[in-house]
TrEMBL record:
Domain of life: Eukaryota
Span of domain Exocyst complex subunit EXOC6/Sec15 C-terminal: 412-770
A GO biological-process term: intracellular protein transport
The protein's name in its UniProt record: Exocyst complex component
Functional description taken from the UniProt entry: Component of the exocyst complex involved in the docking of exocytic vesicles with fusion sites on the plasma membrane.
Annotated Exocyst complex component EXOC6/Sec15 N-terminal domain residues: 49-218
PANTHER family per the UniProt record, alphabetical: EXOCYST COMPLEX COMPONENT 6, SEC15
Keyword annotations: Exocytosis, Transport
Species this protein is from: Amphiprion percula
Lineage start: Eukaryota, Metazoa, Chordata, Craniata, Vertebrata
Family: Belongs to the SEC15 family.
GO CC annotations, alphabetized: exocyst; plasma membrane
Length: 815
């Protein structure tokens, strides 16, 4: 066993030694570690084995050194012998090299010179060749700079295009070309910015000059219209029409079509015709359009231009706050708008697609709506008809000008109808003041005419014809007052003023005739009627003035047919035309006359009330004075003198006579009825508690005077005792008390043949109670024992019985 273990150990150590000898030193560690991991004291045996192996190698090294030692010694000996020859050879080579270097130094210098010259020659040839390629690039770039300095931007863009596509690609490898290529986009942007700046200056310029452009266009349009009017008057000379104005290089003919300007051989203009180009420099917009087109950014330019023009349109359409105060404000407003659209029309036809017809139509529709709204608002503030008329003329010229450029203006002419209504309103207000002044200055007396010339002067102003007055000798008086011919003349002036607005509206004679008649109707039915109604209601207008007003309205009513003839002569439209409007003056003057008549009745009644207020009856008097009251006699005298005034009413023919009689009769009947009613109310006044029979007798005397006045026929034309019937209620009531015929009254009450048919039981009862209280009071004052007198007692019993019966009648009526 021990021997086997020893063998294994020796074999293992041998393997380890071989591994150490054949293995890299870095890997020896694990091998050595395995020695210590084996049996105890194994490393000692390994160390012994290792020492033995070292001694073995030392012996092999020594044997080898001993074997090669002699050869090494021989080699060293031979080397020492060669050393001297080598040093000699080295000296010879060094000398030869030195002599060779000295001999070839000059050749080397010349050779290097030749090489350097050939290199320079090659470089020069290459440089010339490259310069021939670069010089055109530099020349083009220099040309580009010059074009930019001279602001020839469109040519500069063309030069840039050649540089980029032709020249720079040939020499793109050079840095200066790269710098050029890098600068070209920047230069393009600069050109765009400069062009845009020029465009902004152009937009600012046309905004400033649009007023002048519009003024020129509207002036030439007005000349055009004047020329057409002259041509129409000379139609017999042929159909030749001469263009009057030319804007944007196009001549506008009367029918709105365009003609080329090369027809100048037939034109002999008296004054220079200005065009839009004469007033505005359009080159910036052309240049900018070309530049953006070349740069491929035309759409951006178009959008910007249109956006800016829309903004300018809104600014142009914004009116000044006080524009309505003067015609210059309106003229400046229209000039700016016309100038704006004249420029747009020029741009539309001078450029291709910068603005389109659809865009200009959109702008015009937007502007038209704004213009109409502005004019509608500002014209409503205007109260001067002359200013409204000038505004109308401006609108017509404005519409004609833009219509010449193809813009639809029908809505503007429709607006003129609204302005016409406003014009008529201002005319009506103005003429209302005129009528008021005429009425205030009128003396409401017949017009005195002393000579034939004065008569003809009045007749020339007012269509008055009366055969009887014409037969009278001078001096004489015309029935109407001075206001009648003045009113008639002013109505004709109003028709002329209204006609002025209808001029140049492109309307037919029938339409103009209809306008004139409608406006005249408004003047008569509203303005003049209102003035007459206000005049009639004025406190200072007395009965005499009211009578004269009735006369005046009668003559004005008769003159209405002459006004219709006047309008017909102006418009040449036959009054028999189906749609011809009639004048309503007849109803106006009839209404005024009726109002005057009503005012006469009212003033008469007011005057009667004033006299009634002067009544001072002594209701407790024992006996009457034997004569009528003073206030009543004054009242009757006043009525007599008043009704004499009605003799001045027009009665030159049967119609006037019948009208005169009717008014006088109605006034007289109204006055008598009012007087009767007032006297009855005086008797039945609730504040009057008692009445004596003496007072009844006095009152009866006053009523008798009223009846005498009625029977004296203060106004002719009443049949029988018609006027006296106004006092029938008073008469029957007073007769009942004067006769004391109560038995008859009560017995015949309700019978158609009753003597006291008009006496109401309630009225009789009220008055009887007042008389009864008056009798009782009088009896007490006269004799304290009068109540014991038989007659008085019987009378009191009778009154009490009558009172009871009257009360039963009153209660029966109420039930």
């Amino acid at each position: 066993m021990a021997e086997n273990e020893t063998l294994e150990c020796i074999t293992e150590h041998e393997r380890i030694l071989q591994e150490i000898e054949s293995t890299d030193t870095a890997c020896v560690g694990p091998t050595l570690r395995s020695i210590y991991d084996d049996q105890p004291n194994a490393h000692k045996r390994f160390m012994e084995k290792l020492d033995a192996r070292i001694r073995n190698h030392d012996r092999e090294i020594e044997k080898m050194c001993n074997f090669h030692h002699q050869g090494f010694v021989d080699a060293i000996t031979e080397l020492l012998k060669v050393r001297a020859d080598a040093e000699k050879l080295m000296g010879q080579v060094t000398d030869t090299n030195r002599r060779l270097q000295e001999a070839g130094r000059e050749v080397t210098a010349q050779t290097e010179e030749v090489i350097r010259c050939r290199i320079q020659q090659r470089n020069m040839a290459t440089t010339v060749e490259k310069l021939q390629l670069c010089i055109p690039v530099l020349e083009m770039y220099s040309k580009l700079k010059e074009q930019l300095e001279s602001k020839r931007y469109y040519a500069a863009l063309k030069t840039m295009e050649q540089l980029e596509k032709v020249y720079i690609p040939r020499v793109s490898q050079y840095r200066f070309c790269q710098i050029m290529a890098e600068n070209l986009p920047r230069l393009r942007e600069e050109i765009k910015e400069i062009s845009m700046s020029d465009l902004k200056d152009f937009l600012e310029s046309i905004r400033k000059h649009s007023d002048k452009v519009g003024e020129t266009a509207m002036r030439q349009a007005q000349q055009h219209r004047t020329f057409n009017s002259a041509v129409a008057k000379q139609a017999s000379m042929g159909h030749y029409t001469k263009p009057v104005y030319s804007l944007n290089g196009r001549t506008h003919t009367p029918n709105g079509q365009l003609m080329d300007d090369d027809t100048g051989d037939e034109e002999e203009a008296d004054e220079e015709i200005l065009t839009a180009q004469d007033l505005v420099d359009f080159s910036p917009v052309y240049r900018c359009l070309h530049i953006y087109t070349v740069l491929g950014d035309r759409e951006t330019f178009e959008n910007y231009y249109r956006k800016q023009r829309k903004k300018q349109a809104r600014l142009v359409l914004q009116p000044q706050a006080n524009m309505h105060e003067t015609v210059e404000g309106y003229r400046k407003y229209f000039n700016q708008i016309v100038g704006f659209f004249v420029v747009e029309d020029h741009i539309l036809h001078a450029t291709r697609g910068l603005v389109t017809r659809a865009f200009t139509d959109e702008l015009w529709n937007m502007a038209l709506s704004k213009i109409i709204a502005v004019l509608r608002t500002h014209s409503s503030y205007c109260d001067d008809p002359d200013l409204v008329l000038e505004l109308k003329n401006l609108i017509v010229i404005f519409a004609d000008t833009l219509q010449g450029y193809g813009f639809p203006v029908n809505r503007l002419f429709d607006l003129l109808f609204e302005v016409r209504d406003q014009y008529n309103e201002t005319l009506l207000k103005k003429w209302a003041l005129v009528f008021r002044e005429i009425f205030e200055l009128d003396n409401y007396s017949p017009i005195p005419v002393d000579t034939e010339e004065e008569y003809k002067l009045v007749v020339s102003r007012f269509p008055f014809h009366d055969a009887e007055i014409e037969k009278q000798d001078f001096p004489k008086k015309l029935p109407m007052s001075q206001s009648v011919p003045q009113i008639y003349t002013q109505v004709k002036e109003f028709i002329y003023a209204s006609l002025k607005f209808s001029e140049s509206l492109h309307r037919s004679s029938t339409e103009i005739d209809d306008m004139l008649r409608k406006s005249t109707n408004l003047l008569l039915t509203r303005t003049l009627s209102s003035c007459l109604q206000n005049l009639i209601k004025k406190p200072h207008i007395g009965l005499t003035e009211l009578v004269q007003i009735i006369i005046n309205t009668t003559h004005l009513e008769q003159a209405c047919r002459y006004l219709e003839e006047f309008i017909t002569n102006i418009t040449n439209v036959s009054p028999e035309t189906v749609h011809t409007t009639r004048l309503y003056g007849l109803s106006t003057f009839k209404d005024a006359r009726h109002a005057a008549e009503g005012e006469i009745y009212t003033k008469l009644n007011q005057k009667i009330d004033e006299f009634i207020q002067l009544a001072d009856y002594e209701w407790g008097m024992a006996e009457s004075d034997g004569r009528a009251s003073g206030y009543l006699m004054d009242l009757i005298n006043f009525l007599r003198s008043t009704f004499q005034v009605f003799t001045h009413l027009p009665n030159n023919n049967n119609d006037h006579a019948s009208m005169s009689g009717k008014v006088a009769q109605t006034a007289c009947m109204s006055a008598c009825k009012h007087l009767s009613t007032s006297l009855m109310q005086m008797l039945l006044d609730t504040e009057l508690k008692q009445i004596s029979m003496g007072a009844i007798q006095q009152f009866n005397l006053d009523v008798i005077q009223c009846e005498l006045f009625a029977s004296s026929e203060p106004v002719p034309g009443f049949q029988g005792d018609t006027l006296q019937l106004a006092f029938i209620d008073l008469r029957q009531l007073l007769d009942l008390f004067m006769v004391w015929d109560w038995s008859t009254y009560l017995a015949d009450y309700g019978q158609p043949t009753s003597k006291y048919l008009r006496v109401n039981p309630a009225t009789a009862l009220a008055l009887l109670e007042k008389v009864y209280r008056g009798m009782k009071d009088t009896s007490k004052k006269n004799n304290i024992f009068s109540q014991f007198r038989k007659n008085d007692r019987d009378k009191q019993k009778l009154i009490e019985t009558v009172v009871k019966q009257l009360r039963s009648l009153v209660n029966g009526m109420s039930s």
